[in-house]
Design a protein that fits this description.
There is one protein chain. The protein has 131 residues and is mainly beta. The chain has one domain: Gamma-B Crystallin, domain 1 (Sandwich). The chain has 1 helix and 8 strands. The strands form 2 sheets. Strands 1, 2, 3, 4, 5 and 8 form a 6-stranded antiparallel sheet that branches. Strands 6-7 form a two-stranded antiparallel sheet. The protein is globular. The chain starts with a helix and ends with a strand. The relative contact order is 0.22.
Length: 131
Amino acid sequence: MRALSLCILPLLATLAMGLCPAPADVKDADGNKLCARLYADDSPYYDECCAGDFLDVKSGDDVPYVPLKWNNHISSLAVGTRCELTVWSKKPKEGNTKKFTAGAQPRLVEVKRGLLGDWDNVISSYYCKCN
């Protein structure tokens, strides 16, 4: 029974994150480590999150003005191992701010921003660093 539990736990963790990569798997197409990957799509279903178009973020990327296509269009994200992504709700690096550490955030609609808001489709600036 214990062996079965050890096999099921990674599967359950994967299902909870949906399509979002694990921190160690946040890499570009060539296999190079990324600081983060930002996604345009999420879903009410976790297994369909971290999908659609994505924007790769390298360590040291300091972007006070997110490209127009991405401004206020980020719905899920994944941050690499030993990395930290800081985001702002307004440009250039103004408004509400939030730090995300290693891990996946499949639905930014579930991350509170202030008293009544959330982080879905409001990211306008970011800075990412890895140790």
